[in-house]
Structures are given as C-alpha cells and as structure tokens.
Fold these 3 entries.
Entry 1:
Amino acid sequence: MSFLSGEPNAAMENTHYIYDEAMRARIAANLRQFERTPASAKNLKHAAVAITLVRGDDGEGAYVLTRRASRMNTHAGQFALPGGRIDDGETPIEGALRELREEVGLHLAEDAVLGLLDDYQTQSGYLITPIVVWAGAGAEMKANPEEVARIHRITFRELNRPDSPEFVPIPESERPVIRLLMGDDDALHAPTAAMVYQFREVGLYGRQTRVAHLGEPVWAWR
C-alpha cells in the first residue's frame, strides 16, 4: 500500500523522486557527509531498525513501513519500521538485516547499507540505531504473520508533503512530539516518526538535522 496524497516539496524536483542509481548515489553521499551522533546503550535495551528504500508506484522512491500484528505483546497494531532488539554478539547492522529477513522476508547483504543515522533513546528504555538500506528495484517482501499484519511502501512524495511533519507540545514533557502525516487520516508517531524525519532531512536533502529533542506521545512511553 502506498500513500500518494501529498504534493511534492517545492525544493525537490520531480526527477529527484525517481528510484534509480542516481538516487542511491545521492543518498549515500549525503549519509557519508553526515556527522552521526552515537549514544551509549548502557542500562538501555539496544535495538536497530531498517529504513529500507524500495521502488514505489510509478518508479518513485519509497520506504518500508509495517503494521505490527495484533497479537504482539507491545505496541500491537501500530506502524513501525522493520527492526527489533539486537542479539548478543550482533552489530546494529547485522541486527537490522536479520529483522528485515524475519519480518518481511527481505534478504539483503551488508553492501546494501547506505549509512546510519543518530541513535534515538526512547522513554520506554530503548536505544535505537537506524540503518538506511537500499533494497533494489526488484525487492519482494512477504509479511511474517507472527509479527507483521501489513507491509506499506510510503513514497518519498508523501514523506515530503508540505503539511507534514507536525510538532505538537504536550504538558507531560518539554520535548515536542513529532507526527508525520500519511494519507487522509493516518499519522506516524515517534520514535519511528523522528527517525524517518531525520532520514528525510539527511538522506534526501543533506541537512545536518537532529531529532533527539523530539519526543514521543505519552502512550508510546510504555
């Protein structure tokens, strides 16, 4: 499923949406120039997620978003990036690629990794390392029903819609909550929204944008 309701950002020409080797090179170059901020996972559960770049509708770029299965113990039914807790002895890259295989059946080697974004600490005690991965034009995925209810391809055109993101103040925290709008009535919340927003800023635009100051809605703190 793809969301296509957004108008393109004025700063990005239509050709920049095309999923091709020029796009891959552009994103990889932006990530190489990005001065990533790592964080210590001491006293936190270390997880990794894959921001997986695929071909969307009409040959345009998109990223993979899943809807978590209703049987999951935590955050059931919510949107999420493929990912999870890193196993003992794994690197974040190895963990993210393993989760891609387990959740959506996508088998990629480490040379598919374009770069890493900032570590993001959640209110629920996780340190998440986002890994940006190029899946290739022929990527085929199949949801693991134990973990994933649906797989979505969210287009870069939708990611760049002019009315998104929203930054919402809440009384429970000094950190504004980030929300990425999707379609007519859906929204993506932090931590996923924060990491996807940073990918947009860094990967697509080459901006040195930070997201550690952006918070999560209270219901995500558990």
Entry 2:
Amino acid sequence: MRYTHSFGKTNKQAPHDADSANARLLIQGGFIDQLAAGVYSYLPLGLRALNKVKNVIREEMDALGAQEILMPALTPKDNWVQTGRWDEIDVLFKLEGAGGKEYALGSTHEEIVTPLVKKFVNSYKDLPVAVYQIQDKFRNEPRAKSGLLRGREFSMKDLYSFHQSIEDLDEYYEEAIAAYNKIFQRLGIPAIVTEASGGDFSKYSHEFQTPTESGEDTIFVCDKCQYAQNLEITEYQDGDACPKCDGIMRQMKAVEVGNIFKLKTRFTDAFDFHAAGEDGQEHDVYMGCYGIGPSRLMGAIVDVHHDDQGILWPKAVAPFPVHLITLNAKDEAVKDKILRQAETLYQDLDQAGLEVFWDDREVSAGEKFADADLIGLPLRLVLSEKTLKENSVEWKERAQTESRLVKLEQIIESAKSFIQS
C-alpha cells in the first residue's frame, strides 16, 4: 500500500480524552477513529492489524478441533427470559422491533448457541462438539474507557463446547488453556492465567491477564511460579507468601484479555438439552465457554508494545511488516532514479510475500521518520540519494536504535529472514 493512496492519516495531536497508550497511539497513528465513547471505526491499517489478531485466534481454535459458525447479533427476548438473564444482565442493549417484539443486541451468546447445538445433538455419539464465532458484541457499559480495552461495541471470539461428562469437559478445559496460552505467545503479549470468580457455575473461572497500568483489574501474582488470583476473590495482600511455592505474591494492574468458564449444566438445563447415553437413557450435557476479545487484544498489544515515539507492533500482527520510505533529492534525475528503484523494490518485496507500506509522500525526511516510529511497523527500509550511491538500502528495525546499510541484492532474503524469525 502507498501512503498517498491510504485512507486514514497520522495525526500529530493526541486526543484530549485519551486515557491509555492504545487510545492515543491508535488514533494518532491512523488506525482507528472514535465515533462515540467506546465505539470506533477501524481504518485500513487498524483493520489489517485486527484481522491478523483474528487469524491467529482462528488458527488455534481450528487446531483445537472447534468449528467456526456465525450467529445473529440481534437476539430475541424469549431466549434471555428462558435463562432468567433478560433482567439480570444490566449491560444488555434492548430494543423493540416491528409488532412490538423485543430483542437484545448480543453481549454474549449462550442463549443462542445452546438451543442451536441442541438441534444437532441427539446422543453421546454427537458429543463432544465445539463451535466458535468471531463477531461484534454490544454492551451498554456505564463508562467506556481506555480505548479498545473497554468498548460498547467490540470484537469477540466466543467458543462453546458441549460434553457427555464432566470429566470430558475438564479435559477439554485444560486443552483450551493450552490453546489460549499459545495464542498470547504468538501475539507477543504476556498473559497470566488467573483464578477468578466462578459465579454460579464453578469455584473458579480463569482469566488471562496482561499486566498494564491501563488495566482495570488488580491481580496478585507469585513472583516465582506465576500463580495468580484476581482481587475480587483473593485473601492475599502484596508481599504475602505464595500458597503454591516459596515465592511472594505481588500486586499489579492488568487487563483481562481472555476468560474461560465451566458452565456445566446452567444453560443446557434451561433449554432442556439432554442427550441419550450408551445406556439409552437421557443424560446431562455439560458445557464450557471460552472468550477472547480480538479488539481488546489489539489494544493490549499497543499498551504493552510502545515507546515515547509510537507503537512497536509484533511481527505476527503488524498491519504491514515492512515500511518503505523514499527520501526526496534536489536533482530531478536522482529523484527519478530513487523512485524507480523504490518501485522495483516494492514489487519484489510483494512478490516475495512481504507486505509493504510505502511512504511515497512529498514531505520532509523528519516527518516520514516520525510517522514511521508512530505507526510502528517492524522493519523500516529507506531509499535515498545517499543509499543509492552505496547500491544499498538503510535498514532499521523498529525495536532497535541503530540502522545499517544492506546491499540491494540482499534485501529480499534478509527481510524474509527477519520477518519469519
């Protein structure tokens, strides 16, 4: 993509109400645009990053054996009444349709997925089964804040699993924890498995918490074995001994980037969902749910990976891995040569499978470099009169302070090796 063709530009002024690094940098960098509190448009750079987060999640869900579906976001009141949650969930967006029928915009989808799966499961032979979707959710948060970390409309991956026994649910639950850990590892953010309230379902649920000062949660984490509990359930204080090892429990701020529950029969009972066992008798169906917010993850990545100049995108989710910059020359013949060389390099990188964001604007070198740091793509390649004299390109990795010259004929293989490492 050429900068001059890109919809969405960088902004030198930080939003006056930005209360987190991700809110400030994603808006300044031209990734998102705020329509209202907790409601954002994703511009081309931001949508590319969000889709890459989703793709990592999708790959690991598929590897877990789950099947992707897509359920309606507009959900009838009757389903919520059947589970007793129409008046219980205070963040539901409720609306009235034609004929006086009432609906809610989905804040979660247990009420929809449970009767859906029931239609296709008759006996133990159809179990276990796991389905997931990636869809926008809606929650009427009293205070949307911290950019993408708490929105009123947000992207959610919700996975639901159904089992013939609690033992089978327990086994799948552990597999889901492993899959989640792999997702966060691939996305380049720390995620601490944290015990939290299990509500009406279990003693504990498990949250995946990423330490950040923008986070709304307080957790206590062992500095040695990483055992952790959320403040809402813990009896620990900062400096207490860890109950699992000889480490010390430390207090920190964090943002929840994932949450998993053993729902057991809470929703299958509500919809009279049972399945015939090997003995021919009807048996309970046990259920688990597993959530990750791709948009919140995107915000958390920026909160974790930034410096004073801008974002430092991990390679797995950078909207483009390569930021190509051409610097103007006073001599028109030299300028044309730079542009011709840039066009060739741009095409060669693209053919090698390396996506390129080319800053081809007629602005100063200082402005281009400042924008490159703000946008934060992993690798910056600069073509200028100086580099052409050396038959080279200036190579600078966003996470490093030093640059170096790399010969033009070595750029493609060097870039491929860097991005794949």
Entry 3:
Amino acid sequence: MMLTNYDFVPLFKLTESLPGILFGEQISVPTRPHPYSLDEKIYANYMGTYEGYGCKATVARNGDQLYFVWNEETVIPFYPISETSFHHIWYDWECTFTYERDGEISFLGLKKTA
C-alpha cells in the first residue's frame, strides 16, 4: 500500500517498481514525452467549447500555458506532444484532438460547438 498527499503521483507505476527496487532488479523510470513545437494556428483551431454526453470542455490558453477546463470546474494544464496529442503537465495522461470525417473536431469524445 502506498499513500501520497498529491493526486498526480503515479502510484501504480511506483508500486509496481517497488519489488524491483527492493530486490536490486533493473527498473525503468517513467519519463515525460518531449514537447512538440505546435504551430499557433493549429492550436487556435482547437480552442473553443466541446460538448457531449452531459459534459463540457473549454480549450483555451493563458499566455504560453495551454489548458482546458472540464465541466467549468477543473483546469487541466497540458502541452503538445504531437500535432493532435497533448500530455498533462503533472499526470501521466494524454488526450487527443480528432478530425472527424465531416471535418469537425472532437476532443475527449466531445464535439466542438463553438
């Protein structure tokens, strides 16, 4: 069992590594994906409101900080790791923007509405 004061600590990865550490085995340390240099116009196209399934995500930026707001409550800061994929600043978590067949953009399974 492992406890932490922070919800962004990768508990599962750490607890899976503990036996290896204790028995001197080779372990791999998780690394964050490298940032991708995203064209400003592409991100500007992603910005807006996405809705569906009773949920809402608003993609925006504050200066250089890219983020989205989940259900008008939780701010999720992220950074680009490809033209369509983003990684959370703290968590080991990724999300992707998808271009649908009709040309519309979806994010987290939600359709862009504005």
